[in-house]
Amino acid sequence: TALLRGLKENGLTAEVAKRMRPYIVRFVEDVEKGEISLEPFAESTPENSDPIPAPEEVQAGTRDRATTETLASAFAEAFGAGREFATIVQARAFAAETLGEKLDESDNKMVEEAIEAGVVMRARQIVKEGRKSGPAKVFDDLVKLYRAQPILGTRTSTSVAQQAYSTPAPLAYLASRLAGIQAGTTVYEPTAGNGMLLIDARPANVVANEMNPDRFANLEMVLGAEATLTNEDATSVAQPESVAAVIANPPFGKVRGTRWPMGGRRATEIDHAIAWRALEAMDDDGKAVLIIGG
After folding, report:
1. Which residues touch 287 (CB under 8 Å, ≥6 apart)?
2. How many angstroms separate the CA atoms of 109 and 106, rounded?
3. What is d(CA 78, CA 96) in angstroms, rounded to the nearest whole number?
4. How far apart are CA 71 and CA 87, in angstroms?
5. Is the pLDDT of residue 228 over 90?
6. Is the whole-model pTM more than 0.85?
7. What burial class does residue 56 get, using C-beta atoms within 10 Å of its C-beta: 0-12 exposed, 13-18 middle, 19+ buried?
8. Which H helix or E strand runs over 261?
9. Alpha helix (H) residue ranges in the chain
10. 55-106 pLDDT per residue, tens
11. Secondary structure element (H or E) that encloses residue 59, with its range
12. Cα-based torsion angle of the residue sequence 272, 200, 114, 77 in order, rounded to the nearest 10 degrees
């Protein structure tokens, strides 16, 4: 109810909000059924912290950037043509077919990162194409895109340590609408990943940070040279002086033995620290949407 009220305040009519309600309800149900994971994450694991277990961990492959970009574009095009991947096995077979070569287990994470980048690329196209038809149509199409992608679950030592988590496209769009992001809105994203929360932002108005080098490269591919991008730790990166909107879904949780300054206090949760710091960049009359732990 609060989410729908916020969307109405940002320009959605009562009729559009009514149409979007079932999707919001279904998203919550998907979380409850375990189809979408919203586990608390920590962005980094210092040397003195307890290691985070890595079920089914595999080593990252050594493919070059060109391979990832080729696959990301291919997946974006496939999603745009209405193709669905019911399982990750189907998606890996598509990747092998696209590259014209056999892939092994070490390529699994690379394929999944390419899928995620492809989803963001397609989501940006959906948002752009839907500006005339309205947000309800955009949301409908993003839900279809969400349903077309396979469940991703491969973990590497890097992704476990950094606890990378991507916001589902429909939720990212809702967050963007709540933040009031429009054509001329300047926006800051401190933990941008592949850029999902920025699907409705113009690259020239974006300042974004991503610590993971592979996702940072994907972010560069998705947003291009117009965006201002940094590849640093979100708890210490130099931030923009002033933006109209802040949007983020930072990794959740505590990092043992680490505290961050937060006003006159010290934060023990990394998502709280990142959010607090990011808000320092927001205009006094700006808007922020922050997906953080309690």
Report:
1. 178, 179, 180, 244, 245, 246
2. 7
3. 14
4. 17
5. yes
6. no
7. exposed
8. strand 260-262
9. 2-9, 14-33, 65-80, 88-99, 108-129, 135-148, 157-162, 169-178, 213-223, 270-279
10. 344 344 456 889 999 999 999 999 999 999 999 999 999 999 999 999 998 8
11. none
12. 160
